[in-house]
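go over this chain:
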Amino acid sequence: MSIPHPYMSGTANLVKLIVNLREKGLPKKFSKSSLKRAKIPLSYTGRIINALKFVGIIGEKGKPSEEAIDIFSEKDAKKFAGKFNNLIENAYSSLFKKHKKSTWNLDREKLTNFFRETDKKAEVIAEWQAKTFMAFADLARKQPPASAEPYQPAQFSSEKELTKTETKNLTEAERLIALFTQFIAEKEDTIFERTHSFEGRDIHPEIASASQELFDNAHYPEATFRACKILEEKVGRLTSSKEKGVKLMNKAFNAENPKLLLSDLEDSTQNKNEQEGYRSLFCGAMAAIRNPRAHGAKIEDGIDQCLDHLSLASMLMRKLDDATRP
């Protein structure tokens, strides 16, 4: 089974990290903590780590791959660009096999169509996959100059440590400012992407697609209801059932005779318990969250409460993504 192509709704932090790695070197090990020290927001780290694994920068046990060490140690800008190009071409081999060298210049629509056909994901995910590839392509086409230092595992400094040394590294700081000024001028729309509240909660793309417009216009109860409705509709499609709400969830996830399996633990008793637990969660989402907002009750959800509801719906939607039939 092929590995799905990586995706993220905003690529500015991915770009920032690659430039950082080119400038400062690779860490001993990639982790959410090491990316946080590199000033990458925690909500982005998971998706970025997946993307770096996909292209081959991260190897076994989170350590930089041998190929990545070779690439990011390269001081010659042209040689670095060539090696980075090869890295991306190898990772996206099916895309390059179909479109050859024109792949580098494909527009977002063509890329989205390719990813949707290949990975069979929702259109919004395919769009984010296209954005992620385009970010790698932009980095491959134009690379910042290499650091003069040979490869050493990077030790990302804390803000306090930077404050102590900033006056000693004025030349380096000025060079970095010039580099980022140039890069920002060329990709201003990407670098200054506004971070949406959904990013911090990692809202599932299908939930985001259905609810974001309502959420952005402060229709919080309606955004919650729409998220639950999308969840309900997906369960109905997967089970070919015309039932609704709690009845649908009981039928779909009944531990004795389930239509969809949500657990793959080795222990059959634990499997059954987990299945029953998720059945309760799906039923609860319908009874306690969806239904009151569907029956005309006057509910005044705040933004944080709405985000809590959408986070729950996203968690359940991800369980559906991994569900199997008995």
Observations:
- Residues 12-194 form one domain.
